[in-house]
């Protein structure tokens, strides 16, 4: 990547497969969806999901039984059998919000070093869906998770954001790196580029 000064942005939507209730390893899915990470020498990957009953987190990636155990721990800490006042969407409604808060909310940040996510040996990115039905009752995310990706490119920084929200606020600078991504077909919409 050619050295540059200033901050540069591009945004696009990626799709993550729909997940059932529980914690799911999604590191490979995110890497595949964001090949641009390979071009960033030093940066930050910021993942954010705009949803109140699902969580992005970093946890053990080697042993798949950890996801089952994590669901058991969360269900023990936040049982559905309590008499919650916020229950208009079912018994899993309020517990899902509490689980998201306990796990740290909807976002994680990972360093990028030499084109790689600088995760520890046993670390992986998880998407934890805390509802039996996800958000199928309101939104058209029945097929998959729609994600917004924005990237800030400088000679030393890249920020990527992921969201499940369909309304997108574009904040971008026209620059050669973003234009190159567009020309390669990574970005389909030329309207994503606008000068702040």
From TrEMBL:
Pfam family, any one: YjbQ
Protein's UniProt name: Uncharacterized protein
Family, similarity comment: Belongs to the UPF0047 family.
PROSITE patterns according to UniProt: UPF0047
Phylogenetic placement of the source organism: Eukaryota, Metazoa, Spiralia, Lophotrochozoa, Platyhelminthes
Gene3D superfamilies, A to Z: YjbQ-like (2.60.120.460)
Highest taxon above the source species: Eukaryota
InterPro entries (alphabetical): UPF0047_YjbQ-like (IPR001602), YjbQ-like_sf (IPR035917)
Coiled-coil regions listed in the entry: none
């Amino acid at each position: 990547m050619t050295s540059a000064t200033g901050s540069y942005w591009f945004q696009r939507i990626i799709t993550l497969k729909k997940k059932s209730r529980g914690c799911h390893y999604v590191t490979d899915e995110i890497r595949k969806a964001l090949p641009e990470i390979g071009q960033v020498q030093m940066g930050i990957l910021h993942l954010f999901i705009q949803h109140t009953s699902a969580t992005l987190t970093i946890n053990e990636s080697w042993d798949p039984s950890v996801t089952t155990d994590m669901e058991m721990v969360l269900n023990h800490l936040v049982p559905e059998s309590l008499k919650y006042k916020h229950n208009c969407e079912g018994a899993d409604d309020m517990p899902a919000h509490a689980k998201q808060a306990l796990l740290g909310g909807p976002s994680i940040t990972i360093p990028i070093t030499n084109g790689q996510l600088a995760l520890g040996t046993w670390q992986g990115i998880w998407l934890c869906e805390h509802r039996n039905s996800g958000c199928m009752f309101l939104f058209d995310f029945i097929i998959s998770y729609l994600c917004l990706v924005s990237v800030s490119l400088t000679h030393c920084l890249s920020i990527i954001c992921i969201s499940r929200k369909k309304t997108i606020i574009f904040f971008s600078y026209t620059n050669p790196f973003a234009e190159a991504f567009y020309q390669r077909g990574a970005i389909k919409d030329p309207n994503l580029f606008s000068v702040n």
